[in-house]
Structures are given as structure tokens and as C-alpha cells.
Amino acid sequence: MVIFNVDKVFVLLENCQKFPTPDRYDDKFQRSYQKELNRMNIAKNILCMFGILGPLIFILKPLFGSGLPLDCYKPAFIPNSIFILFNTITLYAGAYCVVSFDVFALAMVTLVRLQVRILNKRITLWKMDDNIE
């Protein structure tokens, strides 16, 4: 049989709906929280760098050699310069979608993980308070 303290469950649900801040906890926990956010920022910058440089290398391919950024069938009635421009825009738009989704997923996973860590810390502190009483 499980017994819930209704007041604490409501407080916990209320805390779940607010964005957590680590200010009320010890310095070690705050440093680890900040380290996770910094790590997420570095990973976001790396993903954005690859998202810009990767398509840029393919876009510059027609300037240094013959061919398209992405090799595909080219109809004869379309001028080469227009088709290269269309192919480049398609490649860059596709790469932008992939990288932006990756950055979004990275941010969501990291923020959910940090929120769960803060909630676990709060629950642990509540258990300590119960033992003291």
C-alpha cells in the first residue's frame, strides 16, 4: 500500500511546471548544473558550425570543378546556372532543417535532464527534512 502526502504531491507538481533554477542548492550542484548548460552551448555551436560548413563545401563544389553540389539528373532544357542555384538552395535548406532539429533535440534532452536532476534534489532534501522532524 502506497500512502501519499497530498500537500507534498501538489507542491511537487507545482514545481514541475516552473522552470527550475539551481540557486537554492549547494555550490557543487550549481557548478554541475552550469557545466551541463555550458556543455549544451558548446555542442550547439559545434552542430551549427557543421551545419554551415558542410553545405558550404558542397555549394563551392561547382566553382572548383564541374558538376552539381548534389549529383542528380539534370534536364537538358534547364540552364546549368539556374539548376546549380536550385540544387544549392535545396541542399542548404535540407541541411538547415536537419541541423536545427538536432539542436532542438539536444536542447530538449539536456533541459529535461536538468529539470529531473533538480526535482530529484528537491525530493532528496524533502526526505532529509522528514527524517529531521
Separate helix tally: 3
In terms of structural class, how would the helical and strand content be classed?
Answer: mainly alpha
Low-confidence stretches: none
Mean pLDDT: 75
- Give the overall silhouette: elongated
Helix share, percent: over 70%
Summarize the helix and strand pattern as letters.
HHH
| Residues in β-strands, percent | under 5%
Major sheet, described briefly? Answer: none
Brief write-up:
With 133 residues, the chain is mainly α.
Topology:
Blueprint: H1 6-17, H2 27-64, H3 80-132
Helix pairs in contact: 2-3
Give structural attributes.
single chain; 133 residues; elongated
General description of the model:
InterPro entries: 7tm6_olfct_rcpt. There is one protein chain. The chain has three helices and no strands. With 133 residues, it is mainly α. The chain has one domain. Helix 2 packs antiparallel against helix 3 (80-132). The model has no long low-confidence stretch (mean pLDDT 75).
